[in-house]
């Protein structure tokens, strides 16, 4: 049997991270559809679908924030000036390339704004779990919350289009396969990633920091 | 094109209602324009 360093396939995403990604993706698509289709003229009872999916997204975001902050290496996703220099010098990345980190940072920020404002807006919806309280905030404050929620939703629409487009490009297809099955080949990884900085065998390589 | 949706309350005061949905085609168009631009750039890069 091949040693971890020689195995043809390397693990990029753990099952729990893949489950989080696809739950989030489905939730975001349902939220975008239930928000924008009625505006475009497709009338249906969108509020129950929107708030229930919103609660699922909130739980997913809380889970991911706790897991990535306390149980994973948060630094793997942060962007430092040296990453910009390395990208300009066409150096191979660690686990995540600069464009991947940028997409995560911008899309993550937009989803966070939409989630926090959406969680506050839940106070205005009657559900089996709570009674609506439209007087929780002043009218002007609600206006700001609604503007932030709408602006972040529009940003998520644009960024999601780009995210889906890049995932479907033939040269980036390995990342999509890794997000489905968890693994990619060493050859595929070596195209954009430096094996010395990301071996894909975190458990077997304590020095591997993926930064 | 408006940036915000403004309404009036019972006292006739202007209140902010949310972002203008006129921006929805703009957000979609921006997404599509970048994708088309990138596809063109990608095709030209492959040719050279």
Architecture overview:
The complex is a heterodimer of chains A (211) and B (48). With 211 residues, chain A is an all-alpha fold. Chain A has one domain: Transmembrane di-heme cytochromes, Chain C (Fumarate Reductase Cytochrome B subunit). Chain A has seven helices and two strands; from the N terminus they run βααααααβα. Chain A has a two-stranded antiparallel ribbon with strand order 1-2. By secondary structure, chain B is of the alpha+beta class. Chain B has a domain at 21-48. Chain B is 52% helix and 23% strand. Chain B has a two-stranded antiparallel ribbon with strand order 1-2. In chain B, strand 1 (4-8) and strand 2 (14-19) form a beta hairpin. The interface between A and B is medium-sized, with 22 and 20 residues.
- The main sheet of chain A orders its strands as 1-2
Multimerization status:
heterodimer
Structural class of chain A: mainly alpha
The CATH homology group name of chain A: Transmembrane di-heme cytochromes, Chain C
Approximate strand percentage of chain B: 15-25%
Biggest beta-sheet profile of chain B: 2 strands, antiparallel
**Can you identify the CATH class of chain A?**
Mainly Alpha
CATH architecture of chain A: Up-down Bundle
Q: How helix-rich are the residues of chain B, as a percent range?
A: 40-55%
In whole angstroms, the N-to-C terminal distance of chain A is: 29 Å
Element order, helices and strands of chain A?
A: EHHHHHHEH
Give the radius of gyration of chain B: 19 Å
């Amino acid at each position: 049997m091949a040693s971890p360093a020689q195995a043809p396939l390397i693990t990029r995403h753990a099952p729990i991270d893949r489950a989080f990604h696809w739950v989030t993706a489905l939730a975001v698509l349902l939220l975008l559809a239930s928000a924008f289709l009625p505006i475009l003229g497709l009338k249906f009872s969108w509020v129950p679908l929107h708030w229930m999916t919103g609660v699922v997204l909130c739980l997913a975001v809380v889970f991911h924030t706790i897991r990535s902050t306390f149980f994973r290496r948060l630094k793997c996703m942060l962007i430092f000036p040296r990453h910009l220099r390395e990208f300009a010098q066409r150096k191979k990345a660690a686990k995540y390339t600069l464009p991947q980190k940028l997409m995560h940072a911008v899309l993550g920020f937009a989803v966070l704004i939409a989630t926090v404002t959406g969680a506050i807006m839940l106070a205005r919806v009657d559900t089996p779990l709570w009674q609506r309280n439209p007087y929780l905030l002043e009218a002007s404050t609600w206006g700001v919350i609604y503007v932030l929620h709408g602006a972040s939703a529009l940003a998520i629409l644009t960024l999601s289009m780009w995210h889906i487009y890049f995932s479907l490009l033939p040269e980036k297809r390995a990342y999509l396969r890794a997000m489905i099955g968890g693994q990619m080949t060493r050859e595929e990884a070596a195209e954009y990633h430096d094996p010395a900085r990301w071996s894909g065998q975190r458990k077997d390589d304590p020095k591997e920091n993926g930064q | 094109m408006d940036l915000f949706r403004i309404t009036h309350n019972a006292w006739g005061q202007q209140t902010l209602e949310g972002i203008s949905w006129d921006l929805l085609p703009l957000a979609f168009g921006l997404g599509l324009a970048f994708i088309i631009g990138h596809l063109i750039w990608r095709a030209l890069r492959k040719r050279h």
